[in-house]
UniProtKB/TrEMBL annotation, chain A:
GO terms for molecular function: ATP binding. This is ATP-binding cassette domain-containing protein. Signal peptide: none annotated. Belongs to the ABC transporter superfamily. The keyword Cell membrane applies. The lineage of its organism: Bacteria, Pseudomonadati, Pseudomonadota, Alphaproteobacteria, Acetobacterales. It comes from Acetobacter musti. SUPFAM superfamilies: P-loop containing nucleoside triphosphate hydrolases (SSF52540). The keyword Nucleotide-binding applies.
Automatic annotation (TrEMBL), chain B:
It is found in: Cell membrane. Belongs to the binding-protein-dependent transport system permease family. It comes from Acetobacter musti. InterPro entries: MetI-like (IPR000515), MetI-like_sf (IPR035906). The lineage of its organism: Bacteria, Pseudomonadati, Pseudomonadota, Alphaproteobacteria, Acetobacterales. The chain crosses the membrane at residues 56-79, 136-158, 170-190, 202-225, 246-274, 294-315. This is ABC transporter permease subunit.
Amino acid sequence: MVTTPATSGLSLGLSAIRHGYTLGRDFTAVIGGVTLNIAAGEFVALLGPSGCGKSTLLRLIAGLEAPHEGEILADGLPVAGPHPDRILMFQDPTLYPWRTVRQNVSLSQDISGKKDAAAVDDIISLVGLSGFERAWPHQLSGGMAQRAALARALINHPKLLLLDEPLGKLDALTRLTMQTELHRLWKERGFTAVMVTHDVEEALFLATRIVTLSARPARIVSDIQVDLPFHRHRDDPQVLQLRRDILTRLGHRDDW
Amino acid sequence: MSGTDISLTDRIGTRHPDAGITRRHPAILPWLPGPVWLADALVTWRWPDADDFPDTTLLAILFAVTGIALLTAAATGVLTKRAPWATALGSGFGAWEIAQAKLLSLPRPFFGTPQDLLDVFITDWHRLGDSLLHSLGLLAAGYTVGSLAGIATGIGLGRSKRFRYWVHPVLRAIGPLPPVALLPLTFVLIPSSWLAGEALMALASGFPAAILTWSGIAAVDPAYYDVARTMGARERFLTLRVALPAAMPQIFVGLFMGLGASFAMLIIAEMLGVKAGLGFYMQWAQGWAAYPNMYAALIVMSLMCTGLITLLFRLRDRILVWQKDGLKW
Ligand SMILES: Nc1ncnc2c1ncn2[C@@H]1O[C@H](COP(=O)(O)OP(=O)(O)OP(=O)(O)O)[C@@H](O)[C@H]1O
Ligand SMILES: [Mg+2]
């Protein structure tokens, strides 16, 4: 176990964000006015139909793209570009195939020039990849690659972790383990988390707040505080009630 | 060249795809090549030559030494997979010796005997060696400069719009032109024939390196850049530590193509302008109808080319260890 001091997360303020893409001659509005305030240390789950603009929203918050309209504030300061305090973990692990697991995990140290071998060891053992430091990415299973990507994101203690369906491609059992792990890390470190997911149960298991988005262009449909204590059980009647509630808002009232 | 088999290696598993095959050879096979070479020695020594050839006894001794070495290798178990090739080579030399030195069945002087070839190496090794060194020097300098410039150009094309705007048309105009076409002009413009040869070889190796570096960089998954950017990476890191390694497999394709083009350019330049090197030696040998010398130069040239290709493969295997598998040279 690592004994790192719990870093406090940062707060986010999104005001009237609009964004879109030009494909050929057509302009497609993707984000249609999103206003959202997230306090430091919250764990927000973003739900919405496929293609509605969830990944786009995370890219905007990470600073990889600038919104056409509106402003994003991180700890009160405008987001002008990417910053190591705000790490985005992508839908795919996107490990660099020419780097070993260890080199992948320590990527941000190579970028900043601040080497800390002990921190790399710690985070690798934290995600359970000890013994695989020298493996190449193509030698990892999907779940291991995802855990390496998580370690790479966590290594320099981001204040905001943006997760784009981080567990989407894992098998059901690995998923459960990783959910527990994510929850523990968030508890321990106290970063702010925004996680896109398609899985309502996953959101209910991890999040303090669940925001649902409409179909493209994305707007906020509902914003639900989940006030249940953690170690929530999947068959808890309150959890089931919330689940039905959210599915209804997503337009799946009649589906089981 | 002989003995270069192309097979895929599996880097994770240690098992070679051919692993099971060796065992199926009958155990006598390793013992075959030794006697064949010894038979060559005996034929060379005892069967009178059809004409007055040099070095017949020395050749017989060389055959015998090879035969004994092969027998030793068989006894110590070193000779296994290469036994069929050693046998074939020995049979080939034997057939050549009988057909030409003993029966004189092919027209001279175009076809020499094994002892003619041996004689060239004995009497002219100094000039052959000098030519080889000269060729190597010319090639190494031109190829290195050309490849590095090509990779740099490719990076510029892949990463900078402005660079692409100005350089791409130039590349399109000059690149596809066979460098040979520039040879007369180059030798006129550049007074030093050595420098002119350098320039041509640099051109020959630079173009494929530039194009493949560019295409490699263009094909890099944009997500790779995003990963580094979200961690605060700047342009320098994105280019040198993300784009370049990601494009490395393609770059090596360009380097191999460039090496082949440089070989061609080297020999042509030496034949037509640079009055030294293996190409020049061959030209000279042809002019004097010294055919055994030509064969000898060809052999040296082939050894040089395959040696350099092997070196490049070694380098690639080191740099691209992370690749799942690759062609084995
Ligand atoms: N670089 C781009 N250029 C053009 N259009 C884009 C680009 N990126 C995203 N889009 C469009 O924006 C819309 C939203 O994409 P986004 O990836 O944000 O969806 P998403 O909600 O993450 O979907 P999913 O749940 O399937 O991952 C899509 O219609 C997509 O076609
Ligand atoms: Mg997405």
